[in-house]
Amino acid sequence: MNLQECPFCGSDGEIIKTEEGYKPWYQPKCSRCDCIIDNGFRTEEGAAKEWNDRRSKALEWLKKAGQMAQQQANGGDDIPLHSAWQWLANNIKELEA
């Protein structure tokens, strides 16, 4: 199973298999910072897909927040530095969707 790196610390992702009930559950998480997707998945492939999609979205949003902060630092725009982080905070909920 090919898992991308954690979007927060860059460490390897892993899938934990839990044997509860009559079918196993698979849950993706970071092997270092314990970043975890709350939902369990019935297949290992579903868990891997969700982990990898989540990472792509997180990197997109972090890049956007970084660009906003850089614009402010360069004096190119009147965007307060806290606006970049506020924008990220307002959009981070989509990572869990």
Strand order of the largest sheet: 1-2
How many DSSP-defined strands? 2
Mean pLDDT: 76
| Distance between the ends | 22 Å
Count of discrete alpha- or pi-helical segments spanning 4 or more residues? 2
Helical content (DSSP H or I, runs of 4+):
40-55%
Q: How does the helix and strand content classify structurally?
A: alpha+beta
**What percent of residues are in strands?**
15-25%
Q: Report the order of strands and helices.
A: EEHH
Radius of gyration: 17 Å
Overall, the morphology is elongated
Report on the biggest sheet. 2 strands, antiparallel
Q: Count structural domains.
A: 1
Can you tell me the residue ranges where pLDDT is under 50 for at least 5 consecutive residues? none
Any key phrases for this structure?
single chain, 97 residues, alpha+beta, two-stranded antiparallel sheet, 2 helices, 42% helix, 16% strand, elongated
